[in-house]
Design brief:
Helices cover about 30% and strands about 35% of the residues. The chain is α+β, with helices and mostly antiparallel strands. It binds coenzyme A.
Length: about 160
């Protein structure tokens, strides 16, 4: 299977944070942001492997800055690393001021998706071919996280 560059499957989308997405304090409700993250990450994984995917794990989720009602919300996802059937996808959620367009990173997450074949069992995916310095750094860090998770599971079992 031919390898693919992260840029071939990366996805970007935008929302406006509406009152229905907020908590009583007028800032984003975490569950809404998590749903948007899962959605955009699964799209990148699907575009990478061209198959059905399921979320296997959310490795990290950091809410760094609040997003307020009326803010523009920019989500970016790309596949950082691919194993045999699993793919680690990184997501950045950026809060953008609707008037000045000033941006700051509000949330980051790393998720693992597994590609499924027609029998609904894990199936092989293309390897990832990082090109830019950022992609190579993300690839290296993702590889460390995958190894650390496997080591933890081994120690706990
Ligand atoms: C994800 C799932 C298909 C894995 O099935 P499995 O029988 O454990 O598969 P395997 O042991 O063969 O592992 C397949 C791959 O998944 C990875 N994997 C399995 N569980 C994982 C977990 N909790 N976290 C990260 N990776 C995981 C394995 O490391 C392996 O990766 P590799 O092929 O790249 O080496 C299965 O656990 C499942 O269906 N989970 C429920 C998914 C779901 O309902 N998600 C929510 C809605 S989408």
């Amino acid at each position: 299977m031919a390898g693919k560059k992260p840029s071939e499957s990366s996805v970007e989308s935008r929302y406006v944070l509406m009152p229905g997405h907020a908590n009583p304090q007028g800032t984003a409700f975490g569950g809404v942001i998590m749903a948007w993250i899962d959605m955009i990450a699964s799209m990148a994984a699907q575009r990478h492997c061209g198959k059905e995917v399921v979320t296997a794990n959310i490795d990290s989720l950091s809410f760094k800055k609040p997003i307020r009602v009326g803010d523009h919300v920019v989500l970016k996802s790309c596949v950082n690393y691919a194993g045999r059937s699993s793919m680690e996808v990184g997501v950045r959620v950026i809060r953008e001021d609707p008037y000045s367009a000033e941006q700051s990173i509000a949330t980051t997450a790393h998720l693992t998706f597994v590609a499924l074949g027609e029998n609904k069992r894990p199936v092989g995916v293309a390897e990832i071919l990082p090109e830019t310095e950022d992609e190579k750094r993300r690839y290296g860090n993702a590889k460390l996280r995958v190894a650390a998770r496997k080591e933890l599971l081994r120690k706990m079992s």
